[in-house]
Amino acid sequence: MEMFSGPFFLNYMQIWKENRRFVIQSLKDLGLGKTKIEVHIQDEINHFQEVLKSFKGQPMDLIVPLTSSMSNNISSLIFGRRYEYDDPEKNILDENLDEVTNLLGHTAFHVFFPWIRNIPLLPKWLGIEEGYKKFEKSKEIFRKKIEEHKKTLDKRNIRDFIDSYLLEMKVRQTKNANSTFEDEVLIGCVSDVFGAGSETVRVSVGWLMYTMAAFLDVQEKIQKEILEVVGPDRNPDYQDQKLMPFTQAVILEVLRWRTTVPLNVLRYTLADTNVSGYDIPAGTIVIANFWAVHHDPKHWEDPESFEPERFLAPDGKSVVKSPHYMPFSVGKRACPGETMAYMEIFLYFVSLLQQFHVRFPDGYKPTFEGNLTITFKPPLSKINFISKN
């Protein structure tokens, strides 16, 4: 099975239709985008803040604890529990995800030129083989957890997504021996949700923190809005965003300006078509360029500049979105976890700025060039989180 072979990446229409529909409904039933998952996220943020406080305002690498924290939010949906940041299996999953995205991002031209896979030793030299090996290790952990769930499965107590899928698989296989619901597809589903749900949100929050350390005036303005709406002590909730237009605008602008996923995952055309005078035959690989859309001067004034106000109404009291804004894709193949992703981003962003001042170490000069893998990551830099208490 190929890497990223769950229903959000597959080209096989029947498998994609059946499984994607079920995955989305199952995640919603488990609390995706609802208060239930918000409670889990806020609990995880509280754990994360304790880690930040332990550095006592000294420069720290944000990415390592942030990775563990973000993947815990997805783990609660998939596996039914959060993990300690030093859990061995969880660390393997987090590290493999990071390394696979790096490897695939740096060697992605094998997607554009698939014939290079047949050149002896070239896949190994490019790191493609290493990426597959790490992905296989992650699959083994997913497979192990699925087998553990099978042994304790109880239809009267659905604990998480794996339980939900296993029960649905039993029903469908009883009705149809050729059902597309099977163990290998479940592994692909778990891989997709774990990977996409951890990586993109982590990178987005990383960029937000990096940007706030660089634009202290913007940080101060957001902290003022947080104080007015949330106060200094109450945990923020997702409904607060309705009263925080400037904070929303900053989030929207960072996700546009430093587009987390510059290129969408590959898709295939199902039939011959014509786009702007170009004939595109069926079976053609199509990759959407979100970075180009987000930086097109036809749609954005001075697109290379960081201007949160572009997402505000003239009076600054409400948010105005653009039809050319698509950080989580668009259409039927848009990210099914978009609501949860925005919720996580907002809650982490507001919670951290409520409790900390964010600064770069003395003498550090920020650069916004970033590191391009499958995602566009902020520069590797230490950041000071100075507790307000």
From TrEMBL:
The cofactors required by this protein are: heme
Top-level taxonomic group: Eukaryota
Q: Which GO terms describe its cellular component?
A: endoplasmic reticulum membrane
GO terms, molecular function: heme binding; iron ion binding; oxidoreductase activity, acting on paired donors, with incorporation or reduction of molecular oxygen, reduced flavin or flavoprotein as one donor, and incorporation of one atom of oxygen
Where's it found, cell-wise?
A: Endoplasmic reticulum membrane; Microsome membrane
Pfam families, per database record:
p450
Q: Where does heme bind?
A: 335
Keywords carried by this UniProt record: Endoplasmic reticulum, Heme, Iron, Membrane, Metal-binding, Microsome, Monooxygenase, Oxidoreductase
Biological process terms from the Gene Ontology for this record are:
organic acid metabolic process; xenobiotic metabolic process
Biological role stated in the UniProt entry:
May be involved in the metabolism of insect hormones and in the breakdown of synthetic insecticides.
Task: Identify its protein family.
Answer: Belongs to the cytochrome P450 family.
Name of this protein: Cytochrome P450
